[in-house]
Fold:
Amino acid sequence: MEKTMRFSGLAALVPALMAGLPAWAQETAEAAPASALDSGDTAWMIVATVLVMFMILPGLALFYGGLVRAKNMLSVLVQVTGIAATIMIVWVVYGYSFTFGGSESPWFGGTAKLFLKGVTATSESGTIPEYLFIAFQMTFAAITPALIVGAFAERMKFGAVVAFSVLWVTFVYFPIAHMAWDANGLFFGWGVLDFAGGTVVHINAGIAGLVGAILLGKRVGYGKDNMAPHSLPLAVTGAGMLWVGWFGFNAGSALGAGTLAVLAVLNTMTATAGAVVAWLVIERVLRGKAAALGAASGIIAGLVAVTPAAGAVGPVGAIVLGAVASAVAYWFVAVVKVKAGYDDSLDVFGIHGVAGIIGAIGTGVLASGSFGGQGYAEGVTMGAQVWTQILAVAITVVWCGVVSAILYKVVDAVIGLRVSTEDEREGLDLTSHGESAYHN
Amino acid sequence: MKLIIAAIKPFKLDEVREALTGIGVRGMMVTEIKGFGLQSGHTEIYRGAEYAVNFVPKIRLEIVVADGLADQVVETIRSTARTDKIGDGKIFVLDVEHAVRVRTGETDDDAL
Structure:
């Protein structure tokens, strides 16, 4: 087990590096070197994969479902489920290859592993089977476009949602995941600290959501009708499930069951606790009452913020990171969004985008040993690390923003983005799916 | 016979039912309703979005009694449902022409 001792986020990515080398599988076949498989690591990564799946269904689906009006409840459940299932298929067909296919390009994983070509049940990725690495990464690819649903909820055509998601993972998610996590990737080469996908998953989804909310326009009746969440109990239940599942997301990103995974577990607790307390205190002070939706929002803000930091900062630094991200996200959803006038229905940008950016940059600061973090690579200063983090955020924002806008326009031209005004008023459950969530 | 319709605060329902049973009322119809009177509703805030809730939840009671009991019923509801705060509700009294008990066919006062 000594070889699984890892001390930095970069070291954790060594298995990804190995997966990125095309020669690896062939060598295994020809020379048959001693297997590096570790049953403990493998067992944990199976659990982590299932935990991330639990984040999508029922976690994210219920969280979003509870936040929309009753007439759109099922549409959100179907969108999240439909996107996740579709992207799982896409992942096996070309997504894994485009991300971890072994190409030396900093942007693109190549086509060597289309349909998982060359991968067998005995292929290894670090200390776990490559099939397990594929399954774990599959859940990340599946949840990210499902996160975007919250931004254009209650008004987009189901076919357009699925078509956009397929295009979006192809041209935004796979390239940026390759940049961040593949050994040849651009961010990876720069030494960007992104432990579990702050840029790849949360900033990415947040920006795509913001662009979508702006391009689709406001929901009919926005600012006039009562659009209060139809079931906060379901939303808080979903947020709680996300918190549980996130241990698979963050601690699983250690790709093994070593000390790094345990650090990520503790950080995922403390950062989220800090974020929840911060959100509730701010609401109590500014609004007079601490709210259930505030508690759920704090959970998400903290989890998002600690995602890039989980293996890089210390447990006390994580509290600060969560609290700061929560405060900025609160200001964004309660003040900035209202003034700016765009309708990000469930605050995908306000929470995932904003807390994701705070998390990514904050990781550069709090990774410092003087804040109890795990320290930087040799010869890297805090200033240099923060600058690297900012560059990675900037590239993600620009790439995702521009490409997402183009993809929305393409889908709009081909099948149309929005449902009709009458359908929107009646609710997507009946008009898009022919069902009602609740019967009196 | 009189029909007494009362809108009261939901948490007062059990107390009112008990008091009315005590003075000999043997049946009532209860509905959950929303409405507004002098009480103007309240504001709810969800992340930055504020919504005015103009209709307040109330309980609507419908009670039919013999003429002689009507005043006592009204007074009992008034004294039991009262909290002295705005939004305690209203009571209306109407004449009833005819009543029939479905099971036996008894009519009017006998049917109550």
Remarks:
- The longest strand of chain A covers residues 124-125.
- Residues 1-14, 16-27 of chain A have pLDDT under 50 and may be disordered.
- The interface with chain B takes residues 226-229, 287, 291, 293-294, 297, 333-335, 337-338, 347, 350 of chain A (CB under 8 Å).
